[in-house]
C-alpha cells in the first residue's frame, strides 16, 4: 500500500509546470486588466477635459456677446441721445414707437428676457415686456454701482425674491458728455434668464452617460455655491452650498483654485472623476464630472471575464497535469479512453465558459471547423446550436473579409497567438465589428484554435463620437482662425482707408504734439511720418504764434473746436498753401480733454478758382463800364458822320465805337449809295 501511494505522487517537474502555468496566467491576466484600466481612464480624462473646455468656451462667448451689446449701446451717441431725450422729458410721457420698436427688436434678437429704461430716480419709464416695479435690492445695488463708476455693470447670477426667479443683469449708464459738462439721465437694464440658454448649455452632455454632468459654482465667503440645477438633485441653484473645509469635495477644490483632472467626492458624497476649468473674466468655475463606478464598470466586467478565463485555464492545466500523472502511474490508457477524457475535459471547459463568459468563446479544430461554442455565441450569431456547430470560421465572416482568413490562420500558427480586429456576420446577414484574441491549444496531440471574441460595436460608436467631438473642436478652432483673419483684413482695409483718404488727418495731445497722421497729410506737407510725429502742430503753420495760442486755448477748453476754419500751411520745401480745417476734442471716460482730432483739406484749387472768378467779374465790369460810355448825347458831324470825343477830337464812327465797346466792323455799301456813286455797277447788277 505504501508502495502504491509512493508511485502515485505527482512528479516534481509536473508540479513546477503547473505552478508556472498558474503564475503565468495570473500575471498576464493582471497586466492586461491593469493596462485596460489605464487606457479607459486616460480616454475618460481626455473626454472630460475636451467637454469642459468646450463648455467654458461657449459660456465665455455668451458672456462676451452680452457685454458687446452693452458696449455698443454705451458708445453709440445716436442711441444714448435718443434715450436721453425721452428720460429728460415729462415723466408721464409715453415712449415713442421707434424707441419701443428698437427695444423689442434688441430684446428678441439679443435673446434677453426683458429690457428696462430707468430714470435717475430709479423709476421704470419703459420696458419690454411691460414691468411695473424695478425689483429687489440687487438691481438697486447694480444701479448704484453704475452711477458711481459711470461704467457698464455686468452682474452675477442672483435670485429675484419678488418673482422667485434667477436672473443675470447688465446695467448700461446713459452717459452724455457735452464739452466740460456731462449728465446721467438714466440707465438701460438688459436682463437675461439663464433658463433660456445658459442652463441648457451647462446641463447638456454630448455622449450617452448615466451619471455624467456639468455644473458651475462660485465662491461666496468660505463656501462654494452651485449656480445651476443639478442632474441628481433638484432646487439647488443658488441654494446648495459646500464648505471650503470639505477638501475632498470637487466644488471645494474648484474655489481653492485647483484646475485640470481631479478625483474626489461630489455634492452627493459619491466618488467622481472631474475636470475643472475657470470661466475667463468671471467668478465662475465649471466642473465636468462622471462617477468612478461608471468609468470602472466596463473594466470590472472584463476583469470578471478574465478571471473566469484564467480560472478555466488553471483548471485545464490541472487536468493536463492530472492526465500526465495518471498516464505515468497507469501506463496503459487506451486511445478511446483518452479521447473520451479529452472530450469530457473540453465539455467541462466549455460548460464553465457557457455559464459565466460575457464574450463569445469558440473552439475550432485545425481546419477551423467549429468544435464548441458558448451560449453567448449562439445569442450573437442568431443560429441554433446545432446549426452553429455545422459551420466553419469562413461562414462567420462577410464575403469581403473571407480572403484574409487563410493569412490570419498562418500567422496564428506561426506566433501561437494573435490579437486582432475584424468583421463578423450574423445569420440574418448583418455585420458587427469584433476584437479577437486567439491562441493554439494542443490536447491529446491535436491542435485547436481557441478564440475569445468581443463585440466592440459600442466601443467603435464611442470612438466615432469622440472623433466627432474632436472634429467639432477643430472646426471651432478653424472658425476662430477665420474670424481672426477677417479681423486682420478689416484692420488692413481700415488702415488703407485711413492712410489714403482724400483729406488729411492728424491727432495731437494736450501739449500740441502730433501723435498720429495719415499718408494724405504727409503727402500734402511733404514730410515723412517720423518727421511729423512728436512735433508741435503749429510748426507746420505759416502763422505759427497765432496758431499756437489758438491750439492751446482749445486744449484748455477756453476756445471751441473750429469748423471750416481757413489756415495757411507750410510745406517741407518752404512753399505755403491754403487749407480748410475742422477739428474735434478728444475726451476720456471722465470727460477730460486728452487731445484734438483734425482733418485738413487743400483748397489751393478752390482759391485759384475764386481768383479767376474775381478777375472775370472785374473784366466784365470794365467791359460794361465801357459799353455804358456810349450812352447819352454823342456829337456827330451831319455831313461826314465823325464823332467828337471828350478831348475835342473828331474820330471816324467805327474808330470811336471800337475804342468804347467790344464791337468790330466789316465794311460794305448799301444799294442806294451804289446807285448814287457807281451807277454802272448798279445797272449791271440789276441786269
Can you describe this structure?
46% of the residues lie in helices and 23% in strands. The chain has 687 residues and is an alpha+beta fold. Among the domains are: 98 residues, Beta-Lactamase; 122 residues, PAS domain (Beta-Lactamase), CATH 3.30.450; 103 residues, 2-Layer Sandwich (Beta-Lactamase); 55 residues, no CATH class. Strands 1, 2, 3, 4, 5 and 6 form a 6-stranded antiparallel β-sheet that branches. Strand 23 and strand 24 form a beta hairpin. Helix 8 packs antiparallel against helix 9 and helix 19 crosses helix 20. The radius of gyration is 50 Å and the shape is elongated. The N and C termini lie far apart (186 Å). 21% of the residues are buried. The N terminus is likely disordered.
Q: What percent strand? A: 15-25%
Give helix % range.
Answer: 40-55%
Intertermini distance: 186 Å
How is the main sheet built?
6 strands, antiparallel
Query: What is the CATH homology-level superfamily of the domain at 334-455?
Result: PAS domain
Please state the second-level CATH architecture of the domain at 334-455: 2-Layer Sandwich
Q: Which parts are unreliable, with pLDDT below 50 for 5 consecutive residues or more?
A: 1-8
| Strand tally | 24
CATH topology term of the domain at 334-455: Beta-Lactamase
Mean pLDDT: 84
Structural Rg = 50 Å
The tally of helices reads 20
Shape: elongated
CATH class of the domain at 334-455: Alpha Beta
